[in-house]
Each structure stands twice: as C-alpha cells, then as structure tokens.
Design brief:
Strand content: 15-25%
CATH class of the largest domain: Alpha Beta
Number of domains: 3
CATH topology of the largest domain: Rossmann fold
Radius of gyration: 23 Å
Strand order of the largest sheet: 10-9-8-11-13-12
Number of helices: 12
CATH superfamily of the largest domain: P-loop containing nucleotide triphosphate hydrolases
Largest sheet: 6 strands, mixed
Helix content: 25-40%
Shape: globular
Structural class: alpha/beta
CATH architecture of the largest domain: 3-Layer(aba) Sandwich
C-alpha cells in the first residue's frame, strides 16, 4: 500500500475505520479525521461496491482547515467480505475489506445453527480471507462435544475455537490471530457476543453490549455500524452489526462443501446433478450414511442463490419459472389446469 501511495505524492495514505450513510472516519499518520468522498471519485464510481468500506486503504487530501479528509481514491483490495444487499435489488454490499481472518461467531445456545455456518463459510472462503469458527457462550451449553460433532463435516479444514466471555475460556486462543498488522473481522448474528469478545481483546469496555433476551434466548442489536479498532497488543479488529438475514452474493462452494466436491469428482458423469444419474458418488454416499442428505440440500440451495445473485429481477423470475415449470408456456398450462380444478 505504501508503494501505491508513494506513486501519488499529492495524496496521503489513510485507512477507513468507520462507515456511516454519507460520511466516514479515516486514520492516517496525522491522526483520525472525519471524511467524505471527493466529488470526482463519486462521479467516477459505477457500482455501490466501489464505495469505500471499513478496512479500505484510501488516498486522501485534507481541507485547508485540517478538519475534513476527502477520499480521492480507493486502493485495490486484498480481500473483500461481501454479501447480497438486503432486499430484492441483488446488489452486493461490502462488509469489510483487506481482512486477513474472519471470525464467524455463533453462540452455543438457541442461536446454534449448522446451516448458518455453511452460509457464512461459503461467503468467507470467497472473500480471500481465512475463516475461523468461534463458538461463544460455552458456559450456557450443557454438551459442547455434541455441538462440535454436529459441525464436524461443515468445518473441515477450518479452525474452531470454543470460548466464553464470562469465564474467559478460549479468549487467549483468539488473541493468537490478532497480532502485528493483521486484520480480523467479526461476523455473526445479533447477540452472539461479538462485542463482548472484542472488548476482551481491547482490554476494556470500549463497545456497548447487551444481554440476550431471557424469553427467547435471542440477541439484541448492539453494534449499529462497522468500525475498525486497534488492539493494544497488536493487530486490528473490525466489528460489524449482527446479520439476521444473510444472503450470499457469491461464494466458494468448493471449500465450504469440500466433502461434496470430493465425492462429485468420483461421479460417473462430469455434469452430474447428484439427483437420479447412474454412478453418482454423492447419492451413493447418502445411501451409505457417509453424507447427510440435508448437507446436499444446503449445497443445492446455495448454488441456486449464487446463480441468481448476478441476475436482474426479470432474469431471476424467468430462471425460477424455467426451473419449476420448464417454460412460461408450461407454467400457463399448469395454472389453467389448477384453475379448472378449483372451479369444480
């Protein structure tokens, strides 16, 4: 980054530490400053994912009164953690940039959900960063070993850390990832304890925290915006708001579903859909119990979600019609048949 900055001597190198609707916070050698996007850069941007995000390295100029930084350029990202924007736009939303490690946080209470981890891992592997599954609130779980067994197939090749902010167990294991100039991003649902763990790394109550609701064991939103924070012992962490809805914009199913990928390489046909084809190694593994059918169902669901992500609303609708009916003509025939039955 310094080399790229040196090629633009009229600008200063900075990193985005906070992101709000129209404003940012950046930090450079001169210290922290509020920031806005320069007019030329805003004009040149073509898609929302090109906007600065927390973790981005940027080139800035500072106003004469030294009170505001203007972001002139976003430098190339080494990794990008991205999800589909909430709603029906299909657009991408950058969660964090230039991350080395992604802590996928899930609590060992009612929040525990194996398929949610599959979705997070699909997104994380695609980012270019290394995922680590962090199981929080171990003190509230009666059988941690059973939960780890449930995750065994999903987390192949991924470090899994079990911790409790209340007892302090596992917190030192997290510190091993946050060293030097490394950047770690925390992601997960609301109330899983991300902010509490970050406070443990920061050595104080820097971030606000809230207890889970006792009536349904679900968490409440604490973090409302993304924020980059420097850890006193080295490294930086990025806190992100809890994600109740996780739509995958793109993903690496090869790594997130390495077990299915390995089996698929043994199928008789290269284009096997793992449904009714003869010589399907995936279906054979399900028959013998080597692979759980729900695992394949998750794989197919994410395949479809990713394939739809780059389509317009009309293209997605046509793809769904093709999938369920074969053609619009066949859909019309089916609807007419249903209507005739209802009239009887």
């Amino acid at each position: 980054m310094k080399r790229l900055a040196a090629a633009s001597p009229d600008f200063d190198l900075a990193r985005v530490t906070e992101q709000h609707r129209e404003t940012y916070q950046v930090i450079s050698v001169a210290g922290p400053l509020p920031a806005e996007i320069a007019g030329k850069l805003r004009h040149d941007l073509t898609v929302a994912t090109e906007l600065p995000a927390v973790g981005d390295w940027v080139l800035i100029t500072v106003t004469p009164d030294q009170q505001l930084a203007l972001i002139q350029r976003v430098l190339p990202r080494q990794s990008v953690l991205e999800r589909a924007a909430v709603g029906k736009t299909g657009a991408g939303q950058i969660i964090a940039a230039n991350v080395d490690t992604i802590f996928i946080c899930m609590s060992l209470n009612a929040n525990f959900n194996v398929h949610r981890v599959e979705r997070y891992l699909t997104m994380a592997w695609d980012s270019g960063a290394v995922p680590v599954v962090v199981l929080t609130k171990a003190d509230l779980c009666a059988d941690v070993t059973a939960k780890l067994d449930e995750l065994a197939d999903v987390t192949m090749g991924v470090d899994v850390i079990t911790c409790s902010a209340q007892t302090g167990d596992g917190v030192d294991a997290l510190k091993a990832y946050v060293t030097g100039n490394r950047t770690v991003s925390f992601i997960g649902s609301s109330g899983v304890g991300k902010s509490t763990l970050i406070n443990g790394l920061l050595g104080g109550d820097v971030l606000a925290t809230k207890a889970i609701r006792t009536d349904d064991d679900k968490g409440r939103h604490t973090t409302t915006s993304r924020e980059l924070l420097r850890v006193p012992t080295g490294g930086v962490v990025i806190d992100t708001p809890g994600m109740r809805e996780l739509q995958v914009q793109s993903g690496d199913l090869t790594k997130a579903f390495a077990d299915i990928t390995t089996l698929a390489s043994q199928c008789k046909f290269r284009n096997c859909t793992h449904q009714t084809e003869p010589g399907c190694a995936v279906q054979a593994a399900i028959t013998t119990g080597e692979l759980d059918a729900s695992r394949l169902a998750s794989y197919r669901k994410l395949q479809l979600e990713i394939s739809y992500s780059d389509m317009s609303a009309r293209e997605r609708e046509n793809a769904k019609i093709q999938r369920f009916f074969g053609s619009k003509k066949e859909m019309k025939r089916t609807m007419e048949h249903v209507q005739k039955i209802r009239r009887r």
